[in-house]
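I wish you would study the pair of lines that follows with an eye to the fold:

===
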Amino acid sequence: MGAHGHDRGFTLVELLIAIFLGMLVMSGGYMVFQASNRATREQNLDNRMQDNARVAMDVLSRNFRRAGFLVNFTSYPIGQSVDGMTSKLTTTNSDAGPDSVSILGGTLSTVRFLQRSADQGASTLIVNDITGINVNNVIGVGLTFSSVVSAVNAGSNTITLNTTVPTGATNMYYPGVVLQDNVTPSNQTPAPVRLLTAIRYQINSANAAHPQLEQVTQGTTEPVAEDVEDLQIAYGVDRNNNRIIEAGEWTYMPTTNEIDKIRLVRVTLVARTATPDPLLLNVPQTVPSIEDRPQRIVNDGYRRYILTRIIKTKNLDAIFTL
């Protein structure tokens, strides 16, 4: 029986046209998928880059604010040192690379509490527990003084202080003890005992693919944030003591005599993506001038994020006296 007209199949030309149109649709869909995938990957890299910068900035901000906390050089004179530091800030400036800074201050966390009164000039303190306090530590008690630990006695919870650095404690009484008449209880809040520490912040570029901001404390180096390639710092020094930082009072290398006059610190971080963008490889990009580091041209393919914050250093001018 002969074939009817409505039973006729596709011709070769029609089949080729159908295949071609299908390939166009698939190609368009693949391009959309690729673009979406690339955008998602770039967004994830950018989010991570910005998070790294913010984490690093938060750590620096917190520690600049504590610079000088409990560091009372009326009773802890220059010449003594914490991890080699004899000043509340030690700055290193570079106009060809990252800056670095070392910050000296009391820790924000309380180590122990004072449990007995301490007369002015006392060479010993009694605390609730001496765990965590070691010889050659520098401790701060309350907000009145800091001194060097020369000995500890676990049996009596006693801390012996370096008598060449007189204490500033004077008749401080605390809960759980009685006054000097051995009868009257104390109603005062216990004075916290804190440690003074020096922390150095610097950029480590030993791993060229992943430079990082790191901190060094008592010889121990720890990473703060990865893929942070530059740190630039400017210091606002109140030279005329009018509590206003004028344009001419910003400096990159404050002198020793200017440390206690620093009221503001301007910190700038440059973070970059964890991996380069293939489309930007060998494409010149401009990194703008930051503080005294001049503008530079890079073609490494990394996208960059620049974050700047002005921080108030409320403790640098705080010198407690009795």
About this structure: The radius of gyration is 31 Å. Residues 47-312 form one domain.
